[in-house]
Amino acid sequence: MSISSEIDLVTPVGPESPELGDEFGSASKSQGRQALERFVRSPMAMIATVIFVGIVGFCYIYPLFYRWNYAFADQRTCAESAKPGVCGHPFGTDASGLDLFAQMMRGMQRDFVIMIVSTLVTLTIGILIGAVAGYFSSLTDNLLMRFVDLMLSVPVLVILIVYGNRHPDMGAFQLAVVFGLFGWMGLARLVRAQFLALKEREFVEAAHAMGAGNLRIIMRHMIPNSLGTILVFGTIFAALSIVTETSLTYLGVGVHFPDTSLGLLISNGVDAASTRWWLFYLPGILIVIVVLVVNLIGEGIRNAFDPRHNRVRD
Amino acid sequence: MLIFTIRRLIGSIIVLLITSFLVFTYVASEYDPLKPYRQIPNIKPQTLANLRHQFHLDQPVLSRYWDWLSHLIDPTWSFPFIHFNFGLDYQNNPISGQLATRLEVTTRMIVGAILLAMIMAIVLGVISGVRRDKPIDVGVTILTFILIALPTFWFAALLKDMAIRANTGIFHERFLQVTLEESPGIENYAGGWEVFRDQLTHLVLPTLSLGLLTAASWIRYQRASTIEVLDADYMRLARAKGVRNRTVIRRHGLRNALIPLVTVMAIDVGALFGGAIITEKVYAWNGMGDFLFKAFTNEDSYAVIGWVMVSAIFVVLFNLLADLLYAVLDPRIRLT
Predict the structure, then answer these.
(1) Model-level pTM?
(2) What's the CA dihedral at A306, A307, A310, A312 to 10 degrees?
């Protein structure tokens, strides 16, 4: 899965001028505020947000009260590959007596860190390069875009495998940073495309005429007007980073034993699918739910910024 | 358009050259192709030194790159006219031959998957776009979102587990094969038809797994562009002229709604030729992805570069194809 569906990610750039307000003549609200209101009013997006916050919050708070630690191996004989509910382990244990429920909560914590860190890194680089390429003259643009082409010519997964092979002690945090460092190309293209369109708009020209500097125009006018695209990319990338983490860990170059992650849990559970189903299915279902919810949040943001998708015509 | 194609081809060759140079220098400086030999117990230092010399590892990286590049293309007068020569792997077997076999195995896997994904994308995408917000659209949307959320290897392993259960529970024989691209050595004892049938039973699971996951984003795409097209003025005009709704959608709608999908498909398909590393690993196929993975483990630098070149060539070619298709399908776009 890749973020190649670029056209799908683009939300339209803002109204002719930010001060004009919307076409129904309501009081002046910024585009961001309107989008936020639409987001809050959409049931699907709000349910998804609540579930996501609920899962993450639970996985950070509940381990404080839970009787098993994720790294504690229960030595009793009944706790070896225990079925769910047996021997005081609600989700069962693996072959060495580690509690699956505790491990899943810990894994979710790690995946949350991976999501946040890799998305922040990617957004920073992608916006920076896209903005510079789209705003400045054709030479800078050309050089940067050829650089993007170059980065795209080798698949990200391959780069990550090579890197992971050379650094076998890589932890979740480092994995996230590296993934972020190689994931920004799509965003850079999107931001560049938006900036090219925005550059021709009257309000940017007006800002120029009033003597605003390049940095001010980019920060105050162009980035806020591309916010929809950036946020949608960000959420989809966050979902993708979890999926990529599971893939890398499955290939043996991601998170390793003393630590745990959802990817590591299902990688270990693959061979047990038919004999000890809980080790394979329970963490897998958690991943599917989390990625699904994050994608739905992204869909909600897209609809909020692009009301065309909601409006019933005729 | 011809000039555009030529310009793009030249640009692609430059990108390929730079990529090959960067990857080559990185791999040559980081990898130790003698690693498998070092693991042989009691190997003599003299033997290692001989091997170093034999593999030209004692020469500077730049001269090795030139050596590799100058032998890369091997023109011939028979049919393909060009032979690629990617050098030898660490066991002194030519890499091009191996890559050709691997490419054939991978192609077998992805052709079915692409067809499945294409059919699903067009049928489900158009239906859910036309019947927007109706139950069928909601169902398709939920299906695609779940498919997008599935980690590749988890889904592949899930299908594998289900197939094993079906084999024991329903068919009472190994009807669906869950590993390898064909039964080992089947050519030695079976005829053409049986080999074909054997390969088909091995194909079912990987095709399903890869095809469904690829279809997910394509369906979203087709749905979005169908909705966009339904709003267009020419659609309203056609309906106003009294053309039947079905005909309007088929003649005017579908044709225009397919344009974005076709370009996306071209790009995705180009990337697939590099091998579906994870799907191949779950089903133990000996395809391109597996080749790359083995090359990494053996730190076999020439094999890695060979793989990168083949997959990059496919990516570049299909990207070009995407641009050309865009122009052919949509006459409003002029390529310059």
Answers:
(1) 0.82
(2) -130
